[in-house]
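Feature request disguised as a bug report, sorry. It would help if multi-protein outputs had a clear separator. Right now it looks like this:
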Amino acid sequence: MFLEIVTPAKKVFEGEVSVVTFPGIDGLFQVLNNHAPLVSTLKEGELKYRDNKEESTVEITGGVVEVLNNKVIVLADGLKSN
């Protein structure tokens, strides 16, 4: 499936992934290929995704995710600074 992570400042990631884990308001949830359509609010936390090579993590401050037809779009409020 295709994942796109965007903040108001920049595009963080764009590419094919096999799984994405989100910090949802009610807890963590995961999206796999052919997932049912959904829109959800995200809270501050780790957004994890796996491509062919490795697992990567992005720390977000919140946002919204839309899943539709194997395309996942994350509109993150911002990235958490360490």
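(second protein starts here, but nothing in the output says so)
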Amino acid sequence: MSERRQVRLFKNGRNQAVRIPRELELPGHEAILYREGHRLVLEPLTAQSLLGLLESWEPIDTAWPAVDDPAPRSIELGD
């Protein structure tokens, strides 16, 4: 089991908060908090890849309108 530390709870406005000791810090700036019975579990929020995000979306069932697609044209770039 990982290291355990006794910590103090405090109020931050209307919320209860806990200061996480440096040696137990989570990576990033966001986390997921949930309850398992009498325990609160705090997990780092892992960044999802773009591919993972796209795979999580439901397919779009839409009849898209036709779009005129003009042929590409040459462009002169100046120095």
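Even a blank line would do. Unrelated, but nice: The chain has a mean pLDDT of 89.
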